[in-house]
Amino acid sequence: MLFEPFRIRETVLPNRLVLPAMVTRLSGEDGHVNDDIRARYVRFSKGGVGLVVLEAMAVHGAKSGPLLRISGDEFVPGLRDLGARIHDAGPSKVAPQIIHFLKISRSGWRQTIDMLSLDEIDAIVDAYAHAAARAREASMDGVELHMAHAYTLSSFLSRLNPRKDAYGGTLANRLRLPLRVLARVRRVVGDDFPVGVRFVGEECVRNGYTVLDAGPIAVALAEGGADWISLSAGGKFEDARVIEGEPLYPYTGYSGDRCMPGAAYPDGANLYIPEAVRAAVRAAGLTTPIIAVGKISDRALAEDVVRRGQGDLVGMARALLADPDLPKKWARGDDEKVVRCLYGNVCKALDENFRRVDCTLWPKKSGQAPESDDVVPPRWPEAGSLVHADYKDGRVLVRWQAALDDEGMYGYQVFRAEGEGILRHHASVRAASTRYEDARVVSGRRYRYAVRPYDLAGNRGPMSPTVDVLVSESH
Ligand SMILES: Cc1cc2nc3c(=O)[nH]c(=O)nc-3n(C[C@H](O)[C@H](O)[C@H](O)COP(=O)(O)O)c2cc1C
Ligand code: SF4
Q: Burial letters for 276-308: b for 16+ Cβ neighbours within 10 Å, e otherwise?
C-alpha cells in the first residue's frame, strides 16, 4: 500500500512516503546550493523516498543566517543541477518549499504582520509568484508554499492575526493573503505544475486556532487549487523562549515541542490533526491529498495512517534523517535493518544554533548517514554480552560489553518489558556507549531488559540474554 505509485497532476510519486522540509544549515549565507546540500539530498533519493521537499528557501532577499534562496534568477542553475542529481540518484520526485519571513533582531524586536503596508503585502504575492516560476524553470517536480509555523503567511492565517483591515479578523480575511498567493502562483506556473501547501493544523499556543479552523482553511486552500496539503503543528513565536541578546527561535516553547514532538511524546502524536482536516476536505467533496506528519517511524503506524484515512501520504522528517534508506529497507521487507530515530532532537538544537543539521546517530564527523551493503551482522565477544541491570536512585542502569563487527558498529537497541510482558524496543544507544539509564521506571515493579547490537548497514546482531531487575526503594 505504501509502495504504490501516487499521482499528483502529471507527477507520479514512486510511493507514498514524503520527506517534509527540513532546514539543514548546510548552505552559506549566500543562499546558493553547494556540495554539502547536493550530498544531503542525493542521499535521500538513493534511499527511495517518494517525494523530497527541499528545505525552506527564501522568496525574498531579507537578511537571515545560512538559508537557501530562490529570490533571484541567479539561484536557478544551482537548483536545476540539484534537481537533476536527485533524479539521477534514485526514484524521488523533488519540490522546494518556498518561504517568506519577517524581520527579527537580537534586541528582541520583531516585525509583525500588522506593520505591513498594502504595497508590502502585494510584494509578498509577487515574491512567491516569481519564486514558484523559478522552481518550474529549475525543472522541479512541484513547489510547496510554506504557510506554517512562525512565518508570514502562517501569521496571516493565525487566530492571533492583529490586523484591523481586510487581511485580519474573520477567517475569510485571514485567508485572503494565502489565497491570493496560491492563485497568483497557480497563474504563473500553469495548470500542470503541482503546487502544495504546508500549514499548521493547530497553532498550539493560547488562543491560537485548532482543527476547527484548520478544516475550513484546508478546504479553502484545496478549492483554491492546492495539489497537496501538508499538516504541521505549532512552531510559533508567541511562546518562544526569550534569551537576552538572541533572536527569538520559534521552536523553543510548547508549540515548538508540538512541531517536532520529542521522545516524551507518543508515536504519531499529531495524527488527530491530519485525520480531522482530511475528513473536512473529503466532506467538502474534494480529493486533495493530505500529508500526515509527526513522529511516524514505524511501518505499521505508517500503514495505519493510510488505512485509517489519517493521510494519503506519510511524511517522516527525522526518521529519514536518521536513516535515509528507510523506504528502500521497508520496500524489500528489511524493516529490521532500519536505524530508528531517537527523537532526542539533537538535530533541532543544531538548527536552533545555526549549526549544520546532522543526526546524532551518524558516525562522528561523517556529515552523512552511512552507506553500506554489508550483510554480516555484528556479534558479541567470546565472553558474551555480559548484560546486567541495577536499580539505584530512581533509575535502572543497564550495562553490557561492546559488540564486534567486520565493518563498523553503529549502535545498540535496548529492549524492555514490564513483568512478564513482551520485550519492546525502548531506546537506542550510539556504539560509543555500552550503557543505558532508564529513568522511566515505577517503584514496586519488575522490569526485564535485553540489548541488540546493529552495524552501519543496520544488520542486527543476536539479542543478548534477558536480565531483570526489581525496582524497590530498599533495593
Ligand atoms: C532540523 C529540522 C528542520 C526543520 N525545518 C523545517 C522547514 O524548513 N520547513 C518546515 O515546514 N518544517 C521544518 N521542520 C519540521 C519537519 O518538517 C516536521 O514537520 C517535524 O520534524 C515533525 O515531523 P517528524 O516527527 O517526522 O520529524 C524541521 C524539523 C527539523 C527537525
Ligand atoms: S538527531 Fe536525534 S531526533 Fe534528530 S534525526 Fe537523529 S536521532 Fe532523530
A: bbbebbeeeebebbbbbbbbbbbbeebebbbee
Q: How many CB atoms lie within 10 A of CB 41?
A: 25
Measured from the Cα of 345, ligand 1's closest atom is 31
Ligand nearest to the CA of 348: 1
Which residue is closest in CA terms to ligand 2's atom 4?
A: 347
Distance CA 315, CA 42 (A): 18
List pLDDT tens digits, range 266-303.
Answer: 999 999 999 999 999 999 999 999 999 999 999 999 99
CB neighbours of residue 411 within 10 Å: 23
CA–centroid distance, residue 40 to ligand 1 (Å): 15
DSSP 7: E
- Residues of the chain short of pLDDT 50, as ranges, are 475
- Per-residue buried b or exposed e for 446-461, using 16+ beta carbons within 10 Å of the residue's own CB: ebbbbbbbbbbbbbeb
pLDDT tens-digit map of 222-277: 999 999 999 999 999 999 998 888 888 899 999 999 999 999 999 999 999 999 99
Distance 187 CA to ligand 2 centre (A): 39
Q: Can you give the pLDDT at residue 258?
A: 97
Distance 231 CA to ligand 1 centre (A): 11
Amino acid at 204: C
pLDDT at 475: 41
Ligand 1 atom closest to the CA of 97, numbered from 1: 9
- Residues 6+ positions from 12 with CB-CB distance below 8 Å: 5, 6, 93
Domains and CATH numbers, the chain: 6-352 (3.20.20.70), 388-470 (2.60.40.10)
- The closest ligand to the CA of 151 turns out to be 1
